[in-house]
## 1
Amino acid sequence: MRVDVVSIFPDYLAPLGLSLPGRARDRGLLDVHVHDLRDWTRDRHRTVDDTPYGGGAGMVMKPEPWGEALDEVLPAGATLLVPTPSGVPLTQALARDLATRDHLVIACGRYEGIDQRVADHYGADHEVLEVSIGDYVLNGGEVAALVLIEAVARLLPGFMGNAESLTEESHEAGLLEYPGYTKPATWRGLDVPSVLLSGDHAAIAAWRHDQSVRRTAARRPDLAHPSRAVSVEGLAAHV
Ligand SMILES: N#Cc1c(-c2ccc3ccn(Cc4ccc(CN5CCCCC5)cc4)c3c2)n[nH]c1N
């Protein structure tokens, strides 16, 4: 998979050289390229923002630099991801879907976002997904890009050493994962649940599933009621 990231703060993406994404790059599973949007500005001040039409606080990112950049960086067939507070939620299902793509391009906005015509323009010939990583407001899209890349990259075949762990993770089966324990069997007077020391694999599996169900009901009632789930196709319909 190739991933291109465009940002006015390319150094923000430096962590991509570390840990999981770094290892994926070394294995040739992930090919990440980071670009500075200001390389596509034409004025001596390298201007990327202007005041919003209709008034309001803050500044909006101008469409021209983005158009020049994406014309060069976004080829036919690539998927454009635009992080935004108003995007469709990033879920494990969406991450799995994105992990099947050959080429992702992530447009990291700043200020109060990118002129809407940029997403609209490229939506004519590309899949464009305005995506949110959570119900809180950040100052830009770079953190979201790091989250998106890690959530997707770890699902690439051959990426994680133990592929089995991917199936037991939170959200994979619509449930939160069960609690984990390791040595010592007793720590500060607290014992590991005895079933985990029993060697009875059927009982251990049943206990873990029960713990997942209880945790999900207690912490994420929204996940506990699948009728409230929305498919990836359903999300696209809300774009
Ligand atoms: N993914 C993700 C995100 C982001 C995110 C992603 C990308 C950008 C680019 C710029 N910002 C800052 C910002 C701040 C407020 C508003 C809303 N304003 C309301 C009044 C009219 C103007 C718009 C928009 C943009 C971003 C934030 N935040 N939270 C997530 N889960």
## 2
Amino acid sequence: MKTPVRVAVTGAAGQIGYSLLFRIASGEMLGKDQPVILQMLELPLEKAQAALRGVMMELEDCAFPLLAGMVGTDDPEVAFKDADVALLVGAMPRGPGMERKDLLLKNAEIFTVQGRALNKVASRGVKVLVVGNPANTNAYIAMKSAPDLPAKNFTAMLRLDHNRALSQLAGKAGVAVGEVEKLVVWGNHSPTMYPDYRFATASGASIKDTINDADWNANVFIPTVAKRGAAIIEARGLSSAASAANAAICHVRDWLLGTNGKWVTMGIPSDGSYGIPEGVIFGFPVTAQNGEYSLVRDLPIDAFSQKAIDKTLGELEEERAGVAHLL
Ligand SMILES: NC(=O)C1=CN([C@@H]2O[C@H](COP(=O)(O)OP(=O)(O)OC[C@H]3O[C@@H](n4cnc5c(N)ncnc54)[C@H](O)[C@@H]3O)[C@@H](O)[C@H]2O)C=CC1
Ligand SMILES: O=C([O-])CC(=O)C(=O)O
């Protein structure tokens, strides 16, 4: 039996938490032979704590063989104690008519507090995924609040955008979604993100050449992916939850277990590549192996792409300036 991995999940009684915890406990994130201990954080409010107790009862009732332990708490230092993986989901979601950056000042403080708690008590190699919006800037806040932990281990979720783009592309090109490779979504998890299909292939053939429609790319594909979150809110009255939980599972699974050379999109602190200033948490193409991700380097950036990348970077710089006083 392997040593259990400690997985902290914040906002555990929320929508995404409810779609996420059961899949982690069943082995979908870390492998079917990997025991896990779930360390779940909720707000110190009776309603949130009662909901968390209910979720924990349900987890118990599943009798998951891989669930080696559970902690439910309102204290970040308990939730993050020795955590190997931390999924920072707990934050306010947006409603109709809002942009994700409207949540910035409402949610920012959560990530200073949680960054500091991770810095103090988490495993020194903890791998952090920020889901709570605006995810890139919240990941930046958490990273800056945890100076003793490796900055590269603070990541933001762009995988939902990546998966949305995969499905749109496969549908348009008439190929199976599992065949599509070499896709990337650059930048911020916001409507300025840039889903880039220039390198994408299906069974080795260029998807861009198959589709051969620049108008579709600019006026259908990119806006459909970029505004998909709002479309879900419009349709459901609530933001994406099952697909967001699925993306979180994909992100962490690929990071820890590897991608076998396939590209995925992760929001990671820039090392200065592609002209993105060091430290900005930006959606980049990566591969992963042995628990470490590596940036896909030296891709050609044409004028259209440069303009899109500059736009999403500009927005991230603005968000960063907006939270500078907290750091
Ligand atoms: N990056 C991405 O692709 C996506 C991000 N999101 C974001 O994820 C976040 C969570 O979404 P939902 O689960 O739908 O929201 P929700 O409102 O259903 O659940 C959030 C939970 O977090 C808890 N919470 C709030 N502050 C907390 C704190 N300081 N510590 C611990 N728990 C706390 C709340 O009590 C609530 O139970 C939102 O910010 C949403 O916008 C949602 C979808 C995709
Ligand atoms: O759009 C939202 O507010 C929730 C989210 O991040 C998404 O679905 O991509």
## 3
Amino acid sequence: MTASFPAIRMRRGRTEPWMRSMLAEHRLHPSDFILPLFVCAGQGCEEPIAALQGVSRWTVDRIGAQAKAAAALGIPCVALFPNTPAGLRSERAEEALNPDNLICQAVRAVKDACPDIGVLTDVALDPYTAHGHDGLVDERGRVLNDETTAVLVSQALVQAEAGADIVAPSDMMDGRVAAIRAALEGAGKIDTAIMAYAAKYASAFYGPFRDAVGSRGLLKGDKRGYQMDPANAGEALREVALDIAEGADMVMVKPGLPYLDIVAAVRREFRLPVFAYQVSGEYAMIEHAAAAGAAERDALILETLLAFKRAGATGILTYHAVDAARLIGA
Ligand SMILES: NCc1[nH]cc(CCC(=O)O)c1CC(=O)O
Ligand SMILES: [Mg+2]
């Protein structure tokens, strides 16, 4: 015997706020969020990013206060990205290895201002190369895998030395997680974690980010020779499996909302923390839709972030982290 209507009425569970609250399968918490922060050169400056209305670049002396504000809201971690001055970008991205570059200064500033917040740094060369690619390129403009990995290893070590808690290779070179893990172990950085951008797609949603780090105008060609084809899902599971085997502590799927199927599949297949990056173009889509009166901003923010939790994400990198933490707290 199976019950059916009218004995079964699904709406009974939706009658009152307390009932809906009691039956909710997922909920958002400030500890779900990682806040990306952009760093720029100079002093005493906040530079608004036109392509990311509401997001700014901060000079090193101001970045600590941003992290502190995030920590006060219960956000456990910030992700730092530099806008390297044009004169310091080069063919071979030497500035990425400068122990006093913007990112290393910012890591130290955040740790000084707010020792209790986690600091994640991006391992990839695009904020430092004159051609805007994530790695070293050959004469035909193709990104070289093994040569790039050697530089990424040094970059990760420099960031870990500066105090980064998590290094996050976002370059999509093969074999870089193993190489970085081995180097960290060799340097005694046994507690520096690796969050691998394991399934990172060649996406049109990164446009505003490239403005934020100043690489958009520089990029020659596209990144489809190393980032994944949006047509592929099974390949994402293979990428994740490889990064786990190489020693990743946690993995990431990127972009976010259009790739929730991948987040859910990774959650089903593997037993390690999986993060999703709600990227710059997704942020812009929400902001533009709200500004055009198409939908309510706060509702869009909370609904999209909750969707990541429902899909199985452990946490979400989002430019809305501060807004969302405030909305949840309210
Ligand atoms: N390796 C660079 C990197 N790290 C994070 C993002 C995108 C983040 C965003 O769009 O918010 C990118 C851009 C890219 O791959 O071109
Ligand atoms: Mg890979």
